[in-house]
Specification:
This protein has one domain: Heme oxygenase-like (Heme Oxygenase, Chain A), CATH 1.20.910.10. 69% of the residues lie in helices and 0% in strands. It is built from eleven helices and no strands.
Length: 259
């Protein structure tokens, strides 16, 4: 009989996952160090995460989809994949964050997730002008055939909302939001410059592109998790997977945009 104690963290990624024809993930070094009891601060964990994910972050920020947009090589019908996937992702994320609010009662954590929920709700509203510019109705957003790769991020967020610690979730956000925001800003510029979008039609993208830093809030939450027994590798793994699923989203957009 297999017990939970015998399961090693490396089992989650025994095989490297190839996400596109050209790129693949390299197993981060923290998997080799999993299970060690060395005391480490939240600042050190976040620093390690940024070092480990630097190459992946660069790949996302220099993604082929952004290059296609800059060259006007994604036609209007193919652009619809973006708001359609985001509609389903945000709708799912709202439920996930609501679960986080329900699970975590500590005031600082609870307040932070309340702000995330409010931001997600605003994002869903802000998405509509972008979709309408592309001729999409609410029903078309609802029934658009999304891809597994495009929706994987939301699936993992839903899993974390049930089983993850606040430290894992917040560290994942801290790693992911700047990269997501950067790509949103780049996409917004391309849509206005090459596709005739007005500023009010890219408000969804601009809001994410201009998210303020929340590191001063995140670090104490991560530290509290460490102090209460959350393992550093668990926190690092959450950030790694968030970014991996982020790349899968952009890979999906590029695939749909170049068909």
């Amino acid at each position: 009989m297999i017990s939970l104690e015998t399961l090693q963290p490396t089992s989650f990624l025994d095989q490297q996952s190839e996400l596109s024809d050209h790129d693949h993930f390299v197993r981060p070094s923290y998997f080799q160090n999993a299970g060690k009891d060395d005391m480490i601060s939240s600042q050190e964990v976040v620093k390690q995460i940024r070092v480990e994910l630097r190459h992946l972050d660069d790949e996302i920020r220099d993604h082929r989809y952004l290059h296609l947009l800059r060259k006007s090589k994604v036609d209007f019908p193919s652009l619809r994949a973006f708001p359609a996937h985001q509609y389903h992702i945000i709708s799912s994320d709202l439920r996930s964050v609501a679960m986080m609010i329900h699970r975590f009662n500590e005031p600082t954590v609870h307040s932070y997730f309340m702000k995330v929920f409010q931001g997600e709700a605003e994002a869903l509203t802000n998405l509509l002008p972008l979709a309408q510019k592309l001729g999409m109705s609410g029903e078309e957003l609802k029934h658009y055939p999304i891809t597994p790769e495009g929706f994987a991020y939301a699936t993992y967020m839903g899993w974390l909302s049930m089983y993850g610690s606040a430290a894992e979730i917040v560290a994942g956000f801290l790693a992911n939001f700047p990269t997501w925001g950067y790509n949103c800003g780049q996409m917004s510029q391309s849509l206005r410059k090459h596709y005739g979008f007005a500023p009010e039609e890219t408000i969804f993208l601009e809001a994410f592109a201009n998210l303020p830093s929340f590191e001063s809030v995140a670090l104490p939450i991560i530290q509290k998790g460490l102090d209460e027994g959350v393992e550093p590798w668990q926190i690092q793994r959450a950030a790694y997977l968030f970014q991996g699923y982020e790349k899968m989203f952009w890979d999906s957009m590029a695939k749909l945009g170049s068909m």
